[in-house]
Design brief:
The protein is an alpha+beta fold and 283 residues long. The chain folds into two domains: 151 residues, Rossmann fold (3-Layer(aba) Sandwich); 117 residues, Elongation Factor Tu (Ef-tu), domain 3, CATH 2.40.30.90. It is built from six helices and 14 strands. The strands form two sheets. The chain has a seven-stranded mixed sheet, with helices on both faces. Strands 8, 9, 10, 11, 12, 13 and 14 form a seven-stranded antiparallel sheet that branches. Helix 1 runs parallel beside helix 4.
């Protein structure tokens, strides 16, 4: 069974998602179509890359991911942006080469990467490119056409700006990169970043106001009482700050309670044993 995923900034207010799915079902009557998100902030390719990066490994090899965010091509000299086809870990990703691929891959490298330059001679595909171009490219992949037979191999792709955590000798300076539907604050600090400092070293996680500090990483949300703040490394390996069941009863979770937004700082300060008299002296 062919699996095809959709990630777009189209939302559900208009007909756009229905049109894409209608065309998909014509092309792949038996395919299983999975919506990753249609709530991407308009044109925010970094957000689309984040969402896919967090879940793509749950899909089988051969899955085709269509990313309809900022998908219109550009043919202006020195600024060309053609549709790209990325093969990575046995899966395929079709998106405009607008920075998504570099953001999605991070420090990794593609298995194969191609530009679909033939779109320059296909004006019918310039508008609503997700529907009018990406699905046709997916068909050619499913039909086992060799990628190089219809696209141009390339070693370069655009990279969107993604803020990385700054790691100092005893400090990680990160930011909130996503707020989920529970109001949980997801940061750009990874478990790998945290563990490079070793184990057993006292630390505090600082954000917004000092009275909101956290000095331990919990295994689950329910490791703390309902309504208490908690820090975990989520299933994607990202540091997440939450209020246990804080989204219930209209409280809105950590983002509203702490007044935090995307881009706000989150710091982890490590302190060797014996260097401070008590936790208050860490501030």
């Amino acid at each position: 069974m062919q699996i095809i995923t959709l990630t777009t900034d189209n939302g559900y207010h208009d007909y756009y998602v229905a049109a894409i799915k209608g065309r998909l079902l014509q092309a792949f009557p038996t395919a299983h179509v999975v919506d990753i998100s249609h709530g991407i902030t308009p044109f925010n390719i970094s957000e689309a890359a984040f969402q896919l990066r967090c879940c793509f490994e749950e899909f089988a090899e051969g899955t085709i991911h269509l990313i309809g965010v900022d998908s219109e091509p550009l043919f202006e000299a020195q600024k060309e942006r053609y549709p790209g086809i990325l093969k990575y870990k046995g899966q395929y990703f079709i998106c405009n080469d607008n920075g998504f691929f570099g953001s999605f891959l991070g420090e990794d490298f593609p298995d194969e990467f191609y530009h679909y330059t033939a779109i320059k001679d296909q004006p019918e595909a310039w508008r609503f490119t997700t529907k009018n171009c990406f699905i046709a490219l997916a068909q050619r992949i499913v039909n086992k056409e060799v990628l190089s037979s219809f696209a141009t191999a390339s070693r370069t792709y655009r990279r969107a700006f993604d803020q990385k955590p700054i790691i100092d000798p005893l400090l990680i300076r990160g930011v909130v990169v996503h707020i989920d539907s529970f109001g949980n604050l997801i940061t750009n600090i990874t478990q790998t970043d945290f563990e490079r400092f070793g184990t057993g070293i006292p630390f505090i996680i600082k954000y917004q106001k000092k009275e909101y500090f956290i000095d331990e990483i919990s295994a689950t949300y329910n490791a703390v009482s309902q309504g208490e703040r908690v820090a975990i490394f989520n299933s994607a390996g990202r540091l997440e700050i939450a209020i246990n069941r804080g989204a219930n009863e209209g409280f809105g979770g950590a983002s509203k309670l702490f007044g935090m937004r995307i881009g706000d700082p989150v710091h982890i300060e490590f302190t060797p044993q014996g260097s401070k008299e008590n936790i208050q002296s860490l501030f």
